[in-house]
């Protein structure tokens, strides 16, 4: 009899029931579940990937167990087996199956797409095996709690662990991660309502006293967490108060440096660290740049050197390219990379904009052509809207390249390393 693809032997022979489970049960589902391999798994006992339940009695507990398993990378819950690895069986496996389908569809957010098997043995014992994977993780319970599995036990995830769940997810955006350490009190409510009023214009009809948490939730900039509402990362970066952002999202800071020369070893004239929401970072960074460079809408006549002036004329830069470079830095950086701030370095002849970033398969050409996925689409959309109030330029790297070439008669330099995006703009 042909063995199922899921439990087909691999070239490397498993060294234990645990490695067998990691190789087989956490892969995509197959049509049948091999009873012999299942018995081997049961003999191995509970661990990170497998849980035993005699019955399905406490629905809330089962929900949290399934959430923890899915958030830990996937695995299985076997119903009808006790903690001593003895097959007790189930009286009504069909009813258990229907309960698990209802739980997976209606009591887990986002809904799970499980594989459920009813397995019968020759002695008449019947068990149910629920298999889940992490394709749609992270998951949470109906009361907005995230659970993870450590070894054979589960526990509620803390803020950093929730961040890690969102960071590794390819489905949920990291910017939508709820910041459990933040509260609505850490948000500048006046800034939120200023944006909403400008957005709605004369159609603004929110009643006086309408709660800010509800408004941010409507904007999808906050989410329910437990019994309260907490801002998401995007909502916090857009509207958070600066002291709270410095405490909770320290990796969002920008380091600005003016160097006297044209290389990294040049003497430092001034260096500052700025924290705050993206509005504040934009304004402070642009002000710092204007302190050491002149921004123009069109290429100006270049002052002649050698006329006896004690100080060379400052470099001139295209305003449009500089604003777009700064916007790109704030909204497209990878905020999941901790410990690496964004950096702007101003030299005598150029500016370097350096951002923590994972390439995620992007190439330099795909960036130059604007053919990349935006890592923070919600943050980008609000930040670049007219109602948010930031100085605007034509958007995108292609527009930046055109403006820069028209002004400087050369292309800007773009480079992507494993964890860094670097953009060089040249002055004239």
What would your notes on this structure say?
The chain has 428 residues and is α+β, with helices and mostly antiparallel strands. The protein has three domains: 17-166, Methyltransferase, Cobalt-precorrin-4 Transmethylase, Domain 2 (2-Layer Sandwich), CATH 3.30.950; 184-247, no CATH class; 250-303 and 313-426, Heat Shock Protein 90 (2-Layer Sandwich). The chain has 14 helices and 16 strands. It has a six-stranded mixed sheet. Strands 1-2-4-3 form a four-stranded mixed sheet, with helices on both faces. A two-stranded antiparallel ribbon has the order 5-6. Helix 10 runs antiparallel to helix 11 and helix 11 (319-332) packs antiparallel against helix 14 (397-408). It is elongated and about 95 Å long. It starts with 16 loop residues before the first helix and ends with a strand. 36% of the residues are buried. Residues 1-32 have low confidence and may be disordered.
Q: What is this entry, summarized?
A:
The chain is an alpha+beta fold and 428 residues long. Helices cover 33% and strands 19% of the residues.
Distance between the termini: 76 Å
Low-pLDDT stretches are 1-32
Percent of sequence in beta strands: 15-25%
- Which sheet architecture does the biggest sheet show? 6 strands, mixed
Helix content: 25-40%
Mean pLDDT: 83
CATH topology of the largest domain: Heat Shock Protein 90
Please tell me what the overall shape is: elongated
């Amino acid at each position: 009899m042909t063995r199922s693809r899921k439990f087909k032997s691999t070239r490397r022979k498993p060294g234990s029931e645990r490695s067998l489970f990691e190789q087989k049960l956490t892969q995509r589902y197959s049509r049948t579940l091999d009873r012999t391999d299942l018995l081997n798994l049961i003999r191995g006992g509970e661990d990170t990937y497998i849980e035993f339940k005699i019955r399905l009695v406490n629905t809330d507990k089962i929900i949290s167990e399934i959430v923890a398993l899915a958030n830990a990378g996937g695995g299985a819950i076997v119903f009808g087996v006790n903690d001593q690895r003895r097959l007790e069986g189930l009286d009504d496996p069909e009813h258990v199956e229907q309960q698990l389908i209802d739980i997976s569809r209606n009591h887990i957010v986002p809904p799970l797409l499980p594989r459920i098997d009813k397995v019968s043995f020759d002695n008449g014992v019947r068990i149910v095996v629920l298999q889940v994977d992490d394709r749609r993780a992270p998951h949470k319970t109906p009361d907005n709690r995230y659970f993870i599995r450590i070894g054979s036990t589960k526990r509620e995830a803390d803020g950093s662990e929730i961040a890690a769940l969102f960071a590794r997810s390819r489905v949920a955006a990291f910017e939508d991660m709820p910041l459990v350490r933040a509260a609505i009190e850490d948000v500048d409510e006046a800034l939120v309502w200023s944006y909403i009023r400008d957005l709605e214009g004369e159609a603004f009809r929110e009643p006086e006293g309408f709660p800010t948490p509800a408004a941010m939730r409507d904007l999808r900039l906050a989410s329910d967490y437990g019994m309260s509402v907490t801002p998401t990362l995007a909502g916090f970066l857009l509207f958070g108060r600066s002291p709270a952002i410095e405490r909770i999202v320290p990796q969002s800071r920008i380091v600005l440096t003016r160097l006297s020369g044209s290389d990294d070893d040049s003497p430092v004239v001034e260096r500052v660290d700025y924290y705050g929401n993206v509005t504040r970072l934009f304004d402070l960074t642009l002000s710092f740049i204007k302190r050491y460079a002149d921004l123009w809408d069109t290429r100006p006549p270049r002052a002649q050197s050698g006329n006896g002036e004690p100080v060379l004329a400052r470099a001139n830069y295209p305003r449009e390219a500089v604003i777009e470079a700064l916007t790109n830095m704030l909204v497209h950086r990878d905020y999941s990379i901790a410990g690496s701030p964004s950096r702007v370095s101003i030299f005598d002849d150029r500016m370097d904009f350096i951002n923590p970033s994972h390439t995620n398969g992007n190439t330099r050409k795909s960036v130059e052509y604007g053919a990349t996925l935006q890592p923070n689409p919600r943050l980008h959309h609000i930040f670049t809207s007219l109602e948010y109030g930031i100085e605007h330029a034509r958007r995108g790297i292609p527009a930046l390249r055109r403006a820069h070439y028209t002004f400087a008669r050369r292309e800007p330099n773009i480079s992507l390393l494993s964890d860094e995006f670097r953009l060089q703009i040249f002055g004239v």
